Amino acid sequence: MSQFFQIHPDNPQARLIRQAVDIIKSGGVVVYPTDSAYALGCHIGDKNALDRIRRIRKLDAKHNFTLVCSDLSEIATYAKVSNSVYRLLRHTTPGPYTFILPATSEVPRRLMHPKRKTVGLRVPDNAIAAALLADLGEPLMSVTLIMPGDDLPLMDPYDIRETLEHEVDLVIDGGYCGLEPTTVVDLADETPLVMRVGKGDVAPFQA
């Protein structure tokens, strides 16, 4: 049976954030809100938790997870970022974007694109996600909470609890989340390539 924390969307309670981080560090799978939709997350080095998320979403081994980071300096640990790309990121983070970037050796191999050696990273503009990441001190391995057979993510925390109470360790109720996914921008070759138009404005990436 999963735990269910009601966390204030603007002023997250530090005690509940610490408890949530303890669950993540001990191998738990958590549902948490972002600036686009609810997501499933786990500790970056935990293969068992990653496999549990794959089972929940029915994802194959080729599906790329995103590293959700607290800020730009954390992105630079896990991705190779040129000056021009850094300037773009500085203007668009935090925000509802996922960026495809060349991975550094810090990224676990199972999280990289097998042929391109790239990784997806993002910095969400959400107070609960930001508090989790700050307390955790490292990125969350993450994927949008879209159930198998569905086209849209789950947005009601009570529905999420009912659906996943035996599958995850914690559901964080941060209020209703949106249904629109992040905008995905491939920056691996310096020139921005918008791969998916979502919630984030694409104007900064168009010449």
Provide keyphrases for this structure.
207 residues, alpha/beta, DHBP synthase, 10-stranded mixed sheet, 6 helices, 10 strands
Description:
- The chain is of the alpha/beta class and 207 residues long.
- It has a single domain, classed as Alpha-Beta Complex (DHBP synthase).
- Helix content is 28%, strand content 21%.
- It has six helices and ten strands.
- The protein has a ten-stranded mixed β-sheet with strand order 1-8-2-3-7-4-6-5-9-10, sandwiched between helices.
- Helix 1 packs across helix 5.
- It is globular and about 45 Å long.
- The model has no long low-confidence stretch (mean pLDDT 93).
Give me the secondary-structure topology:
Layout: E1 3-6, H1 14-25, E2 30-32, E3 39-43, H2 47-57, E4 66-68, H3 72-78, H4 83-92, E5 97-102, E6 118-122, H5 127-136, E7 140-144, H6 157-164, E8 170-173, E9 183-186, E10 193-196
Parallel strand pairs: 1-8, 2-8, 4-6, 5-9
Antiparallel strand pairs: 2-3, 3-7, 4-7, 5-6, 9-10
Radius of gyration from the CA trace? 16 Å
Helical fraction equals: 25-40%
What is the total number of structural domains?
1
Distance, first to last CA: 50 Å
The main sheet comes to: 10 strands, mixed
Number of helices: 6
- Helix/strand-derived category reads alpha/beta
Q: What does the overall shape look like?
A: globular
- Give the quaternary arrangement of the chains: single chain
Order of helices and strands: EHEEHEHHEEHEHEEE
Mean model confidence by pLDDT: 93
CATH topology: DHBP synthase
From the 3D coordinates, which CATH architecture would you assign?
Answer: Alpha-Beta Complex
Number of strands: 10
Widest sheet: strand order? Answer: 1-8-2-3-7-4-6-5-9-10
Highest CATH level, the class:
Alpha Beta
CATH superfamily: DHBP synthase
Unreliable residue stretches: none
